Amino acid sequence: LTYAYCWYKKLYFMDSQDIFNKLTRGIRFNAVRKEKKNEIKTEEENDANFGNTMLKKKVNKNKLEAIRREQVAHFRNINGISASGKNIPDPIKEFIELKEKYHVSEQIINNLHSCGYKKPTPVQMQIIPAMLSDREILACAPTGSGKTAAFLVPLLAKLHKPSRQGFRVLILCPTRELSKQILRECILLGKGTGIVPHCIRKVSLDDKKFGPNFSKNLIY
């Protein structure tokens, strides 16, 4: 009893921390440490999973881009298109793509159909999107391949609408016959747009016809 009394008496004057230490002497508490380890392990696993996901997305994106380039190269090959340069715009398959990708007016696309172009020719497939992307081009294609429409369509699309700024586009031709041919096709493709093409034969004569500021308004 004395021992019990003394132990009780001693215990009575202990604070809560001393009581806790006395009652739990020899007992190990691993739950908190284990939880921390588990938390650290979970965070590391999450970081690893996130990194793997991003890597997979990047790999998938690169694979898709490689597949797309391979498809474009195959399309060029089967249509006899040879193109060299950096970041060449993809060729088009249908004229409707000009409206969807490059915002070419529906009137110009309808004019193409009226001129007998139901589908783009190989030179038109590549040249039209390249010129609409403001690329400088040196092109070569056989006679009757649609070269004239290939460069006229982007020019008409870039002009958008009539303007009083003078001549905004200048097309140089080696012969008078070719200039007349281009003029006729330009009139047909520009029908309904309000853009008026003109064939300059002699600047001195056109100066008298259009006024003294005619040659000054030529925009090269």
Automatic annotation (TrEMBL):
User: EC number(s) in its UniProt entry?
Assistant: 3.6.4.13
| Gene3D superfamilies, sorted | P-loop containing nucleotide triphosphate hydrolases
GO molecular function annotations of the record: ATP binding; hydrolase activity; RNA binding; RNA helicase activity
User: Which segments constitute the Helicase ATP-binding domain?
Assistant: 128-220
Q: Where is each DEAD-box RNA helicase Q domain found?
A: 97-125
Which Pfam families does the UniProt entry name for this protein?
DEAD (PF00270)
Query: Which controlled-vocabulary keywords does the entry list?
Result: ATP-binding, Helicase, Hydrolase, Nucleotide-binding, RNA-binding
Short sequence motif named Q motif, residue ranges: 97-125
List the catalytic activities from the record. Answer: ATP + H2O = ADP + phosphate + H(+)
Query: InterPro entries this protein is in?
Result: DEAD/DEAH_box_helicase_dom (IPR011545), Helicase_ATP-bd (IPR014001), P-loop_NTPase (IPR027417), RNA_helicase_DEAD_Q_motif (IPR014014)
Entry domain remark: The Q motif is unique to and characteristic of the DEAD box family of RNA helicases and controls ATP binding and hydrolysis.
Q: What does this protein do?
A: RNA helicase.
- Which family, according to UniProt? Belongs to the DEAD box helicase family.
Protein name (record): ATP-dependent RNA helicase
Annotated organism of origin:
Triatoma infestans (Assassin bug)
